[in-house]
């Protein structure tokens, strides 16, 4: 997606230690028109990969909600986000899995109610970044525990230097990244691929 690549080049900052700051346009400040175009781009990419019949988009709070919502809107299907804390009102049986948070430096447990993820669902997972794939693997585990079928995985930005894509190979589904970045200059800066 050219518009995304241009924004990464002009607005993203590499902070070191694998952290790419893109919060001005994807995960802190949200640009509605641009986000809507990303959702449409995801829908088109999934169609181009032969992904059909999806019934749910799944993501993790907080940063995955915006891209997952616009993708769900473009595909006209529900979106469910995994919570990072179990609210008191979540009294249905839950599916849960743990992920390592890169930005928080700690393990986080993700929860989805069995009410909103059923064995009949056909799921696409959408998130903001593909880095180490820890969050995506946890979401895949939740989908598996629910009995639903995983159809595809999509991320706005893939940090290829983190090798997360290889960790997702075992799921045998298309993995879509709208933009890819890699480190250059002995890891002090990045380039958009």
From TrEMBL:
This is Xanthine phosphoribosyltransferase. CDD domains: PRTases_typeI (cd06223). InterPro entries: PRTase-like, PRTase_dom, Pur/Pyrimidine_PRTase, Xanthine_PRibTrfase. Coiled coil: none annotated. Residues 54-159 form the Phosphoribosyltransferase domain. Keywords: Cytoplasm, Glycosyltransferase, Purine salvage, Transferase. One of its GO terms (biological process) is xanthine metabolic process. It comes from the Bacteria. Its EC number is 2.4.2.22. The gene is xpt. It is an enzyme of class 2 (transferase). PANTHER family: HYPOXANTHINE/GUANINE PHOSPHORIBOSYLTRANSFERASE (PTHR43864), XANTHINE PHOSPHORIBOSYLTRANSFERASE (PTHR43864:SF1). NCBIfam families: PRK09219.1, XPRTase. SUPFAM superfamilies: PRTase-like. It comes from Desulforapulum autotrophicum (strain ATCC 43914 / DSM 3382 / VKM B-1955 / HRM2) (Desulfobacterium autotrophicum). GO terms for molecular function: xanthine phosphoribosyltransferase activity.
